[in-house]
Phosphotransferase
Amino acid sequence: MAVAATSSTIGSFYHSRSQRGITRPRMAVRSSALSAVPILTSLQKNCATPLPVLRHVADAMAADMRAGLAVDGGSDLKMILSYVNSLPTGNEKGLFYALDLGGTNFRVLRVQLGGKDQRVVDTEFEQVSIPQKLMFGTSEELFDFISSGLASFAKKESGKFQLAHGRKREIGFTFSFPVKQTSIDSGILIKWTKGFAVSGTAGKDVVACLNEAMERQGLDMQVSALVNDTVGTLAGARYWDDDVMVAVILGTGTNACYVERMDAIPKLRSHMSASGRTIINTEWGAFSNGLPLTEFDRDMDVASINPGEQIFEKTISGMYLGEIVRRVLLKMAEAGALFGESVPEKFSTPFILRTPHLCAMQLDNSDDLEAVGSILSDVVGVRSDLCARKIVLEVCDTIVKRGGRLAGAGIVGILQKMEQDSKGIIFGKRTVVAMDGGLYENYPQYRRYLQDAVTELLGSEISKSVIIEHSKDGSGIGAALLAAANSNYAHEF
Ligand code: BGC
């Protein structure tokens, strides 16, 4: 909605529509919500992302990538080597599994690969939500829960898929947290993100944690590839399209990976790959340079379980947009009486307002913004007049616009870095950015803001050859493909 918070436009908040759709002025009643307008005006100013801000973010992203490639700890961006040095060719064959742990759910996937002609013959999957208490429990509890999910998935096969004698089922393990890979099938968890605070995993090899849990279950499975979700997405998308060079996740959390030349990674002089290329997991969620932040972002960060970390993620990803909006609205309610005199207790519950609520509110096209009113009443327990609802929508739009545009600037930063290193590799041809994650998939306004920023930064000509493509659930297939490519058994593909 394009209503700027000026006194002239706020005048239109004074009208309500009768059932016949005739606008009648509410002359005598001045909505108390209007006192929140100065807070809105200052929010819009502090969250603004005009072209120079976007340019600064894109340039800083490219510079931080270089610094992170030069030396470990050289910048906020970890620029982690994935050990994925060759991408799927399409020839991969056989039965493989993927296990995906990255947010509030974990998924198990069985993929039958049929080689060049048949490609993906069949997939089946099961999704299990992770009980909240396990996100704060012990490492053993979490991995036992995951491997029991795996066991029940495998049990349902009841002998349908036979593997050669003595052969274990091979898994591509997508683990979507910052991991320092030590090989294609091992890696040390650096820290948890996205609200996870499981004790006893940081500093440990997550594949060993899973293997031990699988042994406790007596499962005949083994991890052949450990991959970040961005890397799985890139591999999965590249299976169908050779022009995929970058993959981005915009969901609960956020991250990006891309195809890098080995000789452009000074910190890894000794490690060579036959292809001369590898995939770098940027862990861009930790980026923080030059972001337009507000008191609400800072307060949310201080109250988080990882203060001072993942600032880009906290500004643009799905886990946090709803919480930022809640904090703004709470201030408007307390200091500006946005919803009348009293503020219900539940309004103060962190993370009670979620990003899907913002999206549902922004999709409300009704004259009286009925859906906005019911979400506010159901979720945070307030009654709102039309004026308050319009202000709420303005707040949502401000935060979502900032997030989408900054994500777009981040993507351009990566493309810029790749292009600067080898002219023509990106901007001289069709280049695909594979994108996945619920925020991108389900939030049309966010998607539009992201695309607008990319077009503004690259100009209309160049941006035509940069294709941002939704690669739904590509990371599961991608992980299975990488398990196939790194199979421990002899294969002909
Ligand atoms: C993690 C990344 C992951 C991203 C998207 C971030 O919190 O640090 O490893 O790729 O979320 O799931």
